[in-house]
């Protein structure tokens, strides 16, 4: 047997997985999260009028606290700046 299994039905293949891992890593670094914090990244499609076609959701779960950030872009288009802005907006004004 040669190499790892690649799912031929996976949407855009390994690059999506790689970018999701990058988003998780950027989120951990930006928020200075401990190892036990869980970071989940999902891309959602919206079919409601006026809603962006793709949205990336980032959930950070620490103990009983969950923080959610929404970025109105496809997962593969999300940048570090997008993540910083999304969590700054979630935190609200100081």
From TrEMBL:
It comes from the Bacteria. This is Nitrate reductase.
């Amino acid at each position: 047997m040669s190499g790892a299994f690649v799912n031929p039905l996976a949407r855009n293949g390994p690059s999506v997985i790689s970018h999701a891992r990058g988003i998780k890593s950027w989120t951990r670094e930006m928020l200075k999260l401990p190892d036990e914090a869980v970071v989940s990244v999902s891309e959602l499609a919206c079919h409601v009028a006026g809603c962006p076609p793709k949205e990336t959701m980032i959930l950070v779960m620490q103990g009983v606290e969950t923080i959610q950030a929404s970025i109105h872009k496809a997962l593969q288009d999300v940048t570090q700046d997008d993540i910083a802005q999304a969590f700054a907006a979630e935190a609200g004004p100081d």
